[in-house]
Amino acid sequence: MDAVQRLWSAWEEPAVLVDPDGRILTANGAFRRWAGKPWPQLVGQGLPELPPGAGSVPVEVGGRLAAYWLHLPGVRLPGETAQGLPGWVVTPGFTRDRRWAVAPVFQPIVALPGGEVLGYEALSRPSWEGRPVDPETLFHAAAAAGTTLEADLACFAAVARAVLAAPWPAGALLFVNVSPRSLMTPDRLHPVLDPLVAALPPGRVVLEISEHVPEDIPYSLWEELPRVYPGVQWAQDDYGLGNADPSRMLAVRPQWLKLDRTLMLQALADAAGRTWLRRFAAWA
């Protein structure tokens, strides 16, 4: 743990923290400069090839392997503190730690070309000791620590509190991200979801299945979701990313579908891609 804390010091040796599968959770400034990439292009990605002699230290949280800390000895670059990572607090009970907070923001969803606001997507903005933490970083760290469910429910509960505290715009939909792990644990999700569904007109809550960390869920369980969670609409977030596939769509039958941004840009790049988009929209 002492070695990992060096990520938060102005250490000149490149240092990086990866999950057990080798995906980057956070890195100090020296590593970002060594890799030649900014923070958003590193988090969640696999490690680039490291030079011989790279040091590696396993990191355990609650007796469970959570990550590996690696550094490049002998490589000296001006450093600054690493991007804040709550990896050491994403453990059972972390939501009760006063150093941790999550605040929702609401992004309007606008219909084109008229510009009508159809609703708002709730986005979580976590922080640790007052420092912003990238949501993707939070969920990768939670997955490494085995607490995806707790992290997701904490974000969902923060959204519910904000919505219930003030009048909701008439006629507006509310899109809320929820992980497959939470959906498959209805006894934990219903207590935070049901008051939200009851407070808004029928069908105004849209559960948006997120893909922060892909999870293998049996097809038969996806088919059960509309029965287990009545009174809501469904949306698939970032279709084309993770485990989202046509089989899931046929099981859940979402009313809304959001294509992954990279997939969309690639499809728009040529005539064949645009034709595929039109056909896909017609099929969906």
TrEMBL record:
A molecular function GO annotation: cyclic-guanylate-specific phosphodiesterase activity
Membrane-crossing residue ranges in chain numbering: none
Pfam families documented for this protein: EAL, PAS_4
Superkingdom of this protein's organism: Bacteria
SUPFAM superfamilies to which the protein is assigned, alphabetical: EAL domain-like, PYP-like sensor domain (PAS domain)
EAL domain mapped to chain residues: 83-284
Protein name: EAL domain-containing protein
Naturally occurring in which organism (per UniProt): Candidatus Hydrogenisulfobacillus filiaventi
